[in-house]
Design a protein that fits this description.
Number of helices: 8
CATH superfamily: NAD(P)-binding Rossmann-like Domain
CATH topology: Rossmann fold
Bound molecules: 1,4-dihydronicotinamide adenine dinucleotide, D-galactaro-1,5-lactone
Shape: globular
Order of helices and strands: EHEEHEHEHEHHEHH
Structural class: alpha/beta
Oligomer: single chain
């Protein structure tokens, strides 16, 4: 597949969307922006909901690929998740199919497998202990469940309609890690752009699932399927470890919300560091 030029960026007003609006143009992309809310400083952005099928279809028309970030990004009610993340992602794939767009990069999440225990023992973990992409879905929330659905939807649209997807199970993509858990799953914004670029351009991906993180010393999962796309992470959260560990100490797997990939999303009610 030739390098895509015009990419529809859904969720452009959000945290990751804002970071990628800054970083992805350096890779030669012309970004078309889409979000339910206005995108600051981008008067040409399309302001529409993923439930607006006509707007979505017009938005994907003529693009080479979609980077699908839009949706509810934390736990919510089942009905809200159903509308934005389940129906919304279905609407996006239908629009891509109808308009002949052949590549989607889907923002999945570690919370699709959030109840999976992280590897125990001293970091860095031996390669064979890292959680593989083939581990069964173990969603920790309705939110994580919607990401598991999105991955299966991507598989269906590849098998049935030939639309290729890279589903990126993002860890935590923020400017800096802000918790001890994030030392293991952090994806620096620059590495995020590297990974999304690889996912947009790699040949013959069919439907490929990858974890999205930097090359962290305390990494919990296997990045080999991401590396196979040509992704070469350059960052490591370890330089932030000192102050975080001094303040919070190491994770204690005996404590609620500290033994799994999904962290405190697994508690009832779920919690998150925001
Ligand atoms: P965010 O919540 O900051 O941004 C999401 C954007 O989607 C918002 O601008 C919102 O207005 C838009 N949106 C929500 N529902 C919509 C709808 N129905 N129609 C149109 N637009 C809608 O989330 P963030 O952090 O930027 O995450 C981006 C994507 O990556 C999300 O899908 C999230 O689930 C996923 N992700 C993010 C992680 C992270 O570390 N930031 C980790 C794992 C996954
Ligand atoms: C996610 O899926 C969320 O969208 C993000 O806000 C973070 O909470 C991240 O997971 C995480 O697990 O840290």
């Amino acid at each position: 597949m030739p390098a895509p030029r015009t990419v529809l960026l859904t969720g452009a007003a959000g945290g990751v969307g804002t970071l990628m609006r800054e970083l992805l143009p350096e890779y030669g992309y012309a970004l078309r922006l889409f979000d339910a809310v206005p995108v600051p400083g981008a008067p040409d952005a399309i302001t529409a909901d993923l439930g607006d099928v006509a707007a979505l279809r017009a938005a994907v028309r003529g693009t080479d690929a979609v980077l699908h970030l839009a949706g509810i990004s934390l736990e919510s009610t089942f009905d809200k998740i159903l509308d934005a993340n389940v129906r919304g992602t279905y609407n996006l794939y239908e629009a891509a199919r109808e308009e002949g767009v052949r590549r989607v990069v889907f923002a999945s999440s570690n919370h699709a497998v959030g109840f999976t225990p992280y590897p125990r023992g001293a970091a860095p973990h031996p390669r064979e202990a890292l959680v593989p992409v083939g581990t069964p879905h173990r969603p920790d929330t309705f939110y994580g469940l919607s990401k598991a659905f999105g991955e299966d939807l991507a598989q269906l649209y590849w098998d049935k309609h030939g639309i290729e997807t890279v589903s990126v199970r993002i860890g935590s993509c923020f400017p800096e890690p802000t918790s001890v858990r994030m030392l293991s799953i952090w994806m620096s914004p620059a590495d995020g752009a590297r990974l999304f670029h690889a996912a947009l351009t790699a040949e013959g991906v069919g439907h490929t699932v990858v974890y999205g993180s930097s090359a962290n010393t305390r990494l919990w999962w296997d990045l080999s399927s991401a590396r196979a796309l040509g992704y070469e992470p350059r960052d490591d959260s370890e330089r932030y470890a000192g102050p975080l560990l001094a303040r919070h100490g190491e994770l204690d797997p005996e404590k609620a919300g500290q033994s799994t990939l999904g962290g405190e999303f697994t508690t009832d009610p779920p919690r998150w560091n925001r």
